Amino acid sequence: MFGQLRHWLGPVQECSPLGSPTGKQKLRHSAQIKSKMASMLLRPTAAASSWASRLGARPLSVTAPLQAQAQTKSKKTLARPGVKNIVLVEGVRTPFLLSGTTYADMMPHDLARAALQGLLNRTGIPKDAVDYIIYGTVIQEVKTSNVAREAALGAGFSDKIPAHTVTMACISSNQAMTSAVGLIAAGQCDAVVAGGVEFMSDVPIRHSRKMRKTMLSLNKAKTLGQRLSLIGSIRLAHLSPELPAVAEFSTAETMGHSADRLAAAFGVTRLEQDEFALRSHSLAQKAQDGGLLEDVVSFKVPGRDIVSKDNGIRPSSMEQLGKLKPAFIKPHGTVTAANSSFLTDGASAVLIMSEEKALAMGFKPKAYLRDFVYVSQDPKDQLLLGPTYATPKVLERSGLSLSDIDVFEFHEAFAGQIMANLKAMDSDWFAQTYMGRKSKVGAPPMEKFNTWGGSLSLGHPFGATGCRLVTTVAHRLKREGGQYGLVAACAAGGQGHAMVVEAYPQ
Q: Pathway it belongs to (predicted)?
């Protein structure tokens, strides 16, 4: 990982993820490791590399409190003189459903429209009071390529409101939100709706390139002879379709394969991954049962019943999770269907405004949207490490430390990806070797981390997850009495994002 194997051989005895401790090192650290592991839910097995022995496993208790008592905070606000305050007024989403289930007969703009209508109903904002609409999506339906515009028209927004669609893999709606922040900060707009949608039940499947070229030529043919000649050139192989895949164009590697390699490089065991997945589903079930997922809006699916909750939350047992076979690297991989996020249909929408405009219209904002950063790394060996690189940068921009953050919401693409990021963030060696930093930023405490579940359990519609993360941070800050929240996510192409959210005074 992170280059050729021999590149690791220098530091491997000290702390390389690909190396194992020497016998003396094992003896020296044995007592300390045993003491730490006894009190932790996740215990690295003997298969874990020296990352596990140096950094230890993170405690992932599923009994972390879902609702903390409100605390009195003395931290200063991040408001800056002369800088416009930009606020999250409201955030909603359709229920996130497993692809191929209740939404199967719909189209992406149907879900996006439902989210926009839910936002209108929740806020009561006049349909002509919004200045701009931005949506994120990844796998576009060609008939509605600018899905933001089609959904806005369908939801009844004024046809005078401009709308555009952005794509940045799993952080597409994060990009939609920060684009909205930019428009407001620049004085171009006062109220912007941002959101995201993904519809995996019906993805575009293309003919082969040779077949496409033949069909285009047929469309241009002027004589019967030309048409017959082109038809006669078609071979059986031309009829093979091109199926979409969650893979990197630059490397041709699937994201699951990358997650498996990343987990192996950081010594993240199958046990750790399964326990994190179980934690995610268990906490999501508690949050759903406790009515904490208040961003979900009910949606009447045409020809079907009303959908009012996510359907991918399925707490299981370690025994059941352990029976699943590796999904990508067979037979020795550790990434399975259960410790990976699943293909999901869903849409989200948020109303972002200048604080001045929001108060003038009688709204009570949920949170301030403060600093944010985007990062990019090598898409081959550091594809999913966006949170590790983005977190220290956004904290420095905000003048905060990790201990100042009360609520963490990280995107869970794979359990192995999350655990690898936590170990990278908690490593001085990784910070010094790969990030050019003097010391580590540290790993988030698990009692503050994704305590209402995450993408592994709630679902991950690629283009819609970012808005869910930010809205969840705002709701958790209010319920738990915190002041600062941190959102972080990885994305295809080796990219990543992080944002600091500040609670609005109650």
A: Lipid metabolism; fatty acid beta-oxidation
